[in-house]
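INPUT
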Amino acid sequence: MVVKFGFCIDFYYSFLDPNNFCPLRGINCFISMNFITFHFLMKKLQDDIANTDLVIWDNFRNGSESAFKRIYTDHYEALFNYGVKIINHEDLVKDSIQELFVELWSKKGTIGHTNSIRFYLLKSIKRKIIYKHNKNQSIHARILGMEYDFQLTYSIEDKIIEEQNAETKKCEVAALLNQLSKRQKEAIYLKFYNQLDYEQIASVMEINIQSVRTLIHEALKRMKEISQK
Amino acid sequence: MKNLRNVDDFVNNEQFVEWVLRPNEQSDQYWNNWMTMHPESEIEIKEAADLVRSFKVQEKNISYEEIMANYDQMAAELSESKANQTISTSRRQWLKYAASILLTGSIALAIFLSYKGEISSEFDQEAKLIEKEVPAGQKNTLKLADGSIIKLNAQSLLKFPERFEEDRRVVYLTGEAFFDIAEDKDRPFIIKTDKLETVVLGTSFNIKAYERDRSIQIAVISGTVKVQYQDAQPISTLTRKEMITYDTKTDDVAVSTFSDEINIIGWKDGILTFNRAGFDLVKEELSKWYGVEIIVRTDVNMGKGFTGKFENSSLETVLNGIAYVGNFKFKIDDKKNKVIIY
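OUTPUT
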């Protein structure tokens, strides 16, 4: 029984572990495996599962303050950096984050599951920031629907530009990068800096998946042109 | 690790992108190791890294100490609002009574809403939508939670949440509807129709967006609406007596004014109008309006098209009018909801 289990877990890990055990090695290994190794592996498996978003989020929903704190500390920086690209007002963004978490805690009993906390939080923070922004504006200055801006500052690596007039090249590249539409910028930012998948990006940006594909495809095409200069 | 062969594989690999944009000791070690083990991918890796790096942006790094300080501050706010909750629950009871007594229900409703007692939909990941479908031959009027009144034409579908969210009111329409939106300065009303969005604050207007039609038509009776693409590119702001016609295939947009309101919104009062309509259009309209299947056994020539207005008329009356112009005979089979034209 132990032997069989040992082989299965080893095999499982060969897929998870980036160092990629060779399954054949696993067969050789299991012969020497004993209860202690088995328990060690089970513990690692449990730890891995416990660290997934799904579990952390569930713990928070069930009232765990430590899970809640962890969610806050794990995602604060990402929320802040995303927020200021939408409304470039640090205090507003910080206040929105505070409000968001206060409300999350109060409503933890009624929130649903999620297997991507980052996605859930990004979607919520955007709405909150725009809402807060609009509250203080006259009707004409309000941001309605999807017309919010998305401001980035590129930090163009010197490595890309190896020519003598690096400064002018930098300006050229910056100008080209700024030709990306604000929605393209947002889609790429969510993909590259927050590792959201297409479905999640579609949900945060409130557009359909096909539009996301198009945005990213077009943006990457542009970026390819730029990176090859 | 999955097979990483071409540039796209690398660009789509989350760990690779993360390493290029925000390298750390662990990922450096891992990827340098990987590159040593796969020298054949050197060119692809360089290309992919250059591509990803072209999107490197300035990000603010917030220290752990600062984050913890913010957390403590937020936790302090939490315990404050916890203390207030015991007071507010008894207030909520009183307000529930007040809401039913007060004639100006909207004011009481606004106060009740601010306690956020039952409203959880803001943070629900999947908004539960109610679907209201109107088949051919019928029209239907809905009143939404915010007091907005929406009249749906035949063969239309409206999806809307049970409770609107705190910061906006969103509904989804296929088909045609007339909107009379309750004013709410803090919550724009957004109607999504396929590729377009119509954003309003408080106003009355008509939207025609049937799937089978090539065009989406939005006409304003009173107030102002903003029409834009799904991804927020604005198209136009419309006001009273203005309308927009958007061709879904060519993306063409035409903004025009209209003088005859009846043509646009007559349907909601039972007024069926035709304006130089060809036979195909007539067939379609009748089929939708009366919920009948129309079988044509002869060629019908409508000449310059049929123009007419019928107010709350029966199918027979309408067909009589059209048959005169089109020079055909018809037979109505009530039981089977069929009309035969011969």
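end of record. Chain A is about 70% helix and 0% strand.
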